[in-house]
Each structure stands twice: as C-alpha cells, then as structure tokens.
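Exercise 3.2. Students should predict the tertiary structure of the chain below and write it as structure tokens, then compare their answer with the key that follows.

Predict this chain's 3D structure.
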Amino acid sequence: MGNASLYLDVDGVVCPFGAAGLTPWGSAWRYAYTGMLEVAYAAELIDELNGLARTPGLRRVWLTSWEELAPAVLCPVTGLDGGDWPVLTADGAGSGADWWKLEAIQADVEFSRPERIIWVDDQLAFEGRAQSWARILRGRALLVSPDPRRGLSPGELEAIRTFMEDRV
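Answer key:
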C-alpha cells in the first residue's frame, strides 16, 4: 500500500451533529458521554475505522478541534483505537484568513512526506483553499467531506479504500 496519511476530524465525521433516525449503516445510533458532552456515533463506523487503521503503511493523524481530547476522551468511550495517533493542533497556526487545519496539514505533509493524503473533514466542501491545495497535489490527495448530520458513510469509507488500493 505504500506510505499514506489519514487525517481525521471528529465532529461531523466520527460524531455527527444532531444524529437522528438510523445511522448510514441502518443501525441505531450509539451514545456516549465524554465527560463534557454526549456524542452520537455508529458502532459500524468505529469497527471500520479500527480495521482501516491496521492497514500497513497507513499513518493515522487527528486533525480536529478536539485536539488531544480525541485520543484521551473520545477513543475510550467509543472504542476507537486512536489513542496513540499523533494530534495536529492550532498551536502555531496563523491568525490570518487561512483555516488552521489547512495550515496544520500542510506543515505535517511537508514534515512527514506521505505519498498519499486522505483528509476527512465535514468542512472540506466549504473550504476552497483546501480544495485548491488538493488539486495542486495532482491525485495524491483525497478529500472526503461527509454530511455533518450523518458522519462518514459506508460509501465514503469505500472511496477511501479504493483510493488506497488504486494507488499501490
């Protein structure tokens, strides 16, 4: 599979906003209290992410406003095996018009030099600079912007797998 980095957001991706009805997998939402707030999540998504995380050559990175709370608080209550993933933070990000997550991922990519980049964040559909940056990478990057009310779907997860397999 080579060398790839998966950058994962929490809100709107792992934990949707205002989850209602059934999960994208057709099951009931699960709820967990993080000590600060209750979050909804799909158990199947957690299982799929845990399986994906075992992919050889795939570096997993938190890129979320939860920052260190994702591995420390979210992972234990949901069962997501992300407690040892590195965390990108807003520290050092510029205060200008640029999105701190774009600045953080650009710095990390410059440092870690992955062959492929998978960035999952519900805001990506609205971030033109992030989309432009991905186009500059000419097929090395896959941006996935889930519906924030549903979270990462089975089809989007399949697109991630296909991107990884097609790029071997």
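Discussion points: The two ends are 5 Å apart (CA to CA). The mean pLDDT is 92.
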